[in-house]
C-alpha cells in the first residue's frame, strides 16, 4: 500500500545491499506520516467557520459573568457551525471594524446582526433575513397606550444618543410634536422611562424586547416597521458558502430553532410571517443586489 503512494509523489526508494524492502518502506512511511502530521493544522483550519460579533450589543452578544460571550447571535453562529459539522470560532470586535475585517479575509462571514441596505448589498452578499429590524417603543407598565406615533404628541421620547433611532426621532420631532431626550447609553434611555423622565423609549425591536424582559415595570408598545431585515454577510466571492449557511438558517426556521432562540433572548414569540419563521425563495434578500432567485428546497438532516 505504501509503495504506489511513494512512487506517486516521486519517492523511488533504492534498496541497498543488506537492506530489506520492509526497512525501506518503514523509513518512507515515517516520512509520509510526518508530512501528514505537519499538514494537520491546515486541515483543522479548513474545518473551522470563523466569524465575528459586536460583543457589547445585548441581547445579541454580551459578556457572560463567568467569561466568554452569550446572546442570540452567539447561539445562531454556534448552531450554524454545528449543522455544517464545522468548528465554531467567534471573535468580538467593534462593529465599525467588522466589515473591513470580513473584506480583508479575516472572517468567513459576519454573525453580528447586520441590516441589509442597498449600499451594503452592493458590496457584500447576504443570506435571507433571520430577524426583522424594526423600531419599537417601550412604556411604563400601565401607562397610556401608544397605538400610533401621533399618540406621543406632547410627550418625551428617550433615545440612545447618536443612534439611528436618535436621528429618526429628531427628524419627526416637528411633525409629531414630541420632545426627544438623548442619553449616553440605551440603558440610561430605558431608566429615564422607569424614573418618569420620559414617557417612552424607542430603539430596535430586539433591544426593546430585551429591556422589557428584564424590567417587569415596563411593557412593549408601538412597533414601527422599517421593512428591513438582519442577515449574515459574506464577501462577494463566497457565493457557495452563503448558500450553505442559508440552507442551515432555513432549516433552523423550519424546525423552530430560531423561534425558540427568539423567545429565549427576547422574551416573546416571533410574529407569524416575520423573518424569524419565514423561509424565503432563492438565496439572499429579494429586491437587493446579490439576490439569487434559484429555486431550492432546504436540505435538513
Low-confidence segments, given as residue ranges, are 1-45
How does the major sheet shape up? 5 strands, mixed
- Rg from Cα: 26 Å
Helices, by number, come to 11
Total beta strand runs:
13
How many angstroms separate the termini? Answer: 36 Å
Secondary structure category = alpha/beta
Spell the H/E element sequence. Answer: HHEEEHEHEHEEEEHHEHEHEEHH
State the share of residues found in helices, binned by percent: 25-40%
* Overall mean confidence score, pLDDT: 88
Strand arrangement across the biggest beta sheet: 10-9-11-8-12
Structure description:
The chain is α/β, with parallel strands linked by helices and 301 residues long. Helix content is 39%, strand content 20%. The protein is built from 11 helices and 13 strands. A 5-stranded mixed β-sheet has the order 10-9-11-8-12, sandwiched between helices. Strands 5, 6, 7 and 13 form a 4-stranded antiparallel β-sheet that branches. Residues 1-45 have low confidence and may be disordered.
Amino acid at each position: 500500500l505504501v509503495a504506489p503512494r511513494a512512487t506517486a509523489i516521486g519517492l523511488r526508494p533504492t534498496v541497498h545491499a543488506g537492506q530489506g524492502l520492509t526497512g525501506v518502506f518503514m523509513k518512507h512511511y515515517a516520512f509520509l506520516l510526518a508530512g501528514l502530521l505537519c499538514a494537520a493544522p491546515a486541515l483543522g483550519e479548513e474545518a473551522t467557520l470563523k466569524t465575528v460579533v459586536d460583543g457589547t450589543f445585548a441581547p445579541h452578544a454580551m459578556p457572560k459573568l463567568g467569561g466568554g460571550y452569550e446572546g442570540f447571535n452567539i447561539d445562531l453562529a454556534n448552531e450554524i457551525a454545528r449543522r455544517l459539522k464545522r468548528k465554531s470560532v467567534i471573535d468580538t470586535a467593534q462593529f465599525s471594524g467588522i466589515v473591513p475585517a470580513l473584506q480583508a479575509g479575516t472572517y468567513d462571514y459576519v454573525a453580528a446582526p447586520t441590516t441589509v441596505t442597498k449600499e451594503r448589498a452592493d458590496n457584500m452578499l447576504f443570506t435571507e433575513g433571520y430577524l426583522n429590524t424594526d423600531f419599537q417603543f417601550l412604556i411604563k407598565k400601565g401607562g397610556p397606550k401608544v397605538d400610533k406615533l401621533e399618540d406621543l404628541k406632547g410627550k418625551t421620547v428617550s433615545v440612545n444618543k447618536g443612534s439611528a433611532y436618535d436621528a429618526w426621532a429628531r427628524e419627526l420631532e416637528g411633525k409629531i410634536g414630541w420632545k426627544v431626550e438623548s442619553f449616553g447609553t440605551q440603558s440610561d434611555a430605558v431608566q429615564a422611562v422607569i424614573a418618569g423622565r420620559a414617557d417612552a423609549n424607542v430603539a430596535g425591536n430586539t433591544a426593546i424586547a430585551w429591556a422589557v424582559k428584564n424590567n417587569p415595570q415596563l411593557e412593549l408598545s408601538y412597533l414601527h416597521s422599517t421593512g428591513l431585515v438582519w442577515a449574515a454577510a459574506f464577501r462577494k466571492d463566497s457565493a457557495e458558502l452563503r448558500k450553505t449557511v442559508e440552507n442551515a438558517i432555513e432549516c433552523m426556521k423550519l424546525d423552530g430553532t430560531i423561534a425558540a432562540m427568539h423567545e429565549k433572548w427576547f422574551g416573546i414569540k416571533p410574529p407569524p410571517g416575520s423573518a424569524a419563521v419565514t423561509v424565503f425563495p432563492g438565496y439572499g434578500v429579494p429586491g437587493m443586489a446579490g439576490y439569487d432567485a434559484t429555486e431550492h428546497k432546504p436540505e435538513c438532516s
